[in-house]
Specification:
Radius of gyration: 18 Å
Number of strands: 0
Shape: globular
Helix content: over 70%
Distance between the termini: 50 Å
Structural class: mainly alpha
Length: about 290
């Protein structure tokens, strides 16, 4: 039976900044539209966190029963290590999805945006079928696409719209930026796992691109994310404080250099944490740029 500490480690807390960041950016965009609503922002945050933990447990379960995690480098896998029964990990994943669904229903009811229920259903389905089901899209190299959509576009724009009932240029820029950094985090994870994923037939985008191009894609995604707020400010002539986001480049240097230079894949493990920190710093600076 897994200990509490093992369940916490299995939840992969280092990925939670990727759930917090888009809600922060989306709420700041709503504030800039004079539509910020604290209660709806907190509900959106709960949905994002529950979905993130849920997809982490779902990934642990699905990869574990397929044997993908048998020789994995990195943090503890509950199923693959035998620390917890596969069925229990699956139950934990669906409990998180259920909690996210209930909170999501509350959010759409509060904001009157009932059509977003369809988006919520799609988000839960995407969370499960990333590595679950008979043909998981994460094994086909599509994981990064869905992460960009749901942890970038949907998370940021959904947060903004459920508060302000409108969208803006900065909201779109923030959505793309957050999506790119979340995708970069997944890319770093998958570059680390290229050897074991290739052996088990998990054809992630990193496997398909190859080691060197995949590493450079990480740097490219981070760079574009940093530039987007500046372009938004220049094109709209508004929110000059968005230039603050460039300061996040200081945080981006170390993980980017490690991605390009490190030959030992174990050295990529800290990159995941640093990318999570980068995502949170990016979001804080972006939010400041919109509210100042």
């Amino acid at each position: 039976m897994a200990t509490t500490a093992q369940w916490v480690e299995g939840a992969r807390l280092r990925t939670l900044p990727m759930a917090i960041a888009p809600v922060l950016v989306g709420s700041a965009a709503a504030f800039a539209l004079d539509g910020f609503h604290l209660g709806r922002a907190l509900l959106a945050l709960f949905v994002a966190l529950a979905l993130q933990v849920g997809v982490n447990y779902a990934n642990d379960y699905s990869d574990g029963i397929r044997g993908t995690d048998d020789a994995r480098v990195g943090p503890l896998r509950l199923t693959g290590s035998g620390a917890a029964p596969a069925a229990t990990v699956k139950t934990a994943a669906f409990a998180c999805f259920g909690a996210a669904s209930v909170a999501g229903l509350g959010l759409v009811a509060w904001s009157g945006t009932w059509w977003l229920i369809a988006v919520g259903v799609a988000a839960v389905a995407a969370a499960w079928y990333y590595t679950g089901g008979k043909k998981p899209y994460g094994y086909l190299g599509l994981g990064e696409v869905f992460v960009f959509i749901f942890f970038g576009l949907v998370a940021v724009l959904g947060t903004t719209y459920t508060q302000a009932l409108a969208l803006s240029g900065p909201a779109w820029a923030g959505a793309v930026g957050c999506g790119l950094i979340s995708t970069a985090l997944l890319m770093a994870n998958n570059v680390r796992d290229i050897p074991t994923d290739r052996e088990t037939g998990k054809m992630t985008l990193a496997v398909r691109l190859g080691d060197t191009p995949a590493r450079w894609s990480y740097v490219a995604m981070v760079a574009v994310a940093l530039i987007l707020p500046v372009l938004s400010s220049l094109l709209t002539g508004q929110h000059p404080w968005l230039w603050l986001v460039l300061l996040a480049g200081v945080v981006a240097v170390k993980p980017s250099v490690t991605m390009l230079r490190s030959a030992d894949r174990r050295d990529l493990i800290p990159v995941l944490k640093l990318t999570g920190v980068l995502g949170l710093v990016y979001a804080v600076l972006f939010a400041l740029g919109l509210v100042l």
